[in-house]
Amino acid sequence: MKCRNCGSELNHCILDLGTSPPANAFLSREDLNKPELWYPLRLLVCEKCFLVQTEDFVGRETLFNPNYVYFSSFSDTWLKHAKNYVEMVTEKFGLSEKSLVIEIGSNDGYLLQYFKNKNIPCYGVEPTHLVAEAARKKGIETVEEFFGIDLAKRLEQAKGQADLMVANNVLAHVPDIHDFLQGFYILLKPEGVATFEFQYVVPLIKQALFDTVYHEHFSYFSFTTVSEIFRVNGLKVFDVEHLPTHGGSLRVYVEKEDSGAFEISDRVLNLLEEEKKEGVRKLEFYSALQERAEKIKRDFLMFLLDAQQKGKKVAAYGAAAKGNTLINFCGVKGDLIKYVCDKNPYKQGKYLPGSRLPVVAPEMLKINLPDYVLIIPWNLKEEIIHELRVKYNENFSFVTALPILDLI
Ligand SMILES: [Zn+2]
Predict the structure, then answer these.
(1) Which of 241, 285, 319, 326 could serve as 279's disulfide partner, Cβ 3.0–4.6 Å?
(2) What is the distance in A from the centroid of ligand 1 to the CA of 243?
(3) pTM score > 0.85 for this model?
(4) Do 72-286 and 290-407 have matching folds?
């Protein structure tokens, strides 16, 4: 396979998670009688540009199909994050009723609803049907297509250029990253700003946060590498922030290369320097990932086997995609985890891909009382533990498998 950024041959596999079905390919009851497609799940690093990337077997039309059921609005933490962002950028960039905001990968309108409340004109681009429909129900105009040069040209003709473009947790999902970013160049006003949030590769490698590796995530970025990718597409990074989301993310602010409207912040130079010290442009930085992931697997399996041996029942909470990577890498089935609760009604009544664990409503925690609740979206554990304790008032023990096995 060739690097999706620079085209070099990729020779360095840094993580082999065996095979797995696509992490959001939930099964219906009828699907249980059919076979599933399992694809190799491997992470590679390019020795030229150091872009970390999954080997591409599946294709985006298979991944982001009409039945795609990831809805951003089911997490209160995430909604709060979106609201704070809208307050911050509105103030910082002086957005008003005369501005235009476009979000790419706008999901169910979780973020644009806050711009709408402020009467700031906005619309979203979201290729998956069910979530686009959910956004429209909130009154958010949504273009249901994949984004790239072609769509950007049509939108620019029809609706003009944007003051602000937003892409949160979408950069990793794009197979052709250059086509995607050139779309931003086309659709942005000469002095416009675009912000991107994405999982940061440095904590992923150092803490082996391997459950965020799945087929939908094509790329994983260091700041050094992503800055270079922006640069070759005519975009200049002028600021960067660390965010706690997904175990460590970056928010990057870019303008058009020829704009010069913003001064480059010290944070940009500092982070580039910090990454140089970390060694993100050296292969050794990536070499211990497999070993770290296998240790997490062993600890998790030992916990599950020990619980089973002692006659304790384990259920899981949050049918997030990352859980499927963990569960399928560990080979866990229904004998070790009884069921998975999720608030999303589109997931309830379905089964996890691969492991085929049933997804049920959280109320099941009252009917079929577990001894342990495994929190799959460990990045939201405070929110979830609080919610379950308030709602169910049961003294469950909570457990997370990543970044290390933790009994709470
Ligand atoms: Zn490369």
Answers:
(1) 285
(2) 26
(3) yes
(4) yes
The contacts of residue 281 (CB under 8 Å, 6+ apart) are 50, 224, 275
Which CATH topology does 72-286 take? Rossmann fold (3.40.50)
Query: Ligand 1 center to residue 145 CA distance, Å?
Result: 27
Distance CA 81, CA 102 (A): 18
Q: Which CATH number fits domain 290-407: 3.40.710.10, 3.40.50.720, 3.30.70.580, 2.30.330.10?
A: 3.40.50.720
Q: Report the DSSP pairing between strands 52-54 and 219-220.
A: antiparallel
pLDDT tens by residue, 281-327: 999 999 999 999 999 999 999 999 999 999 999 999 999 888 999 99
Per-position DSSP letters for 49-89, written without gaps between them: T--EEE---S-HHHHT-TT----GGG-HHHHHHHHHHHHHH
User: Which residues are 188's β-sheet partners?
Assistant: 162
Q: Is the confidence at residue 18, as pLDDT, over 80?
A: yes
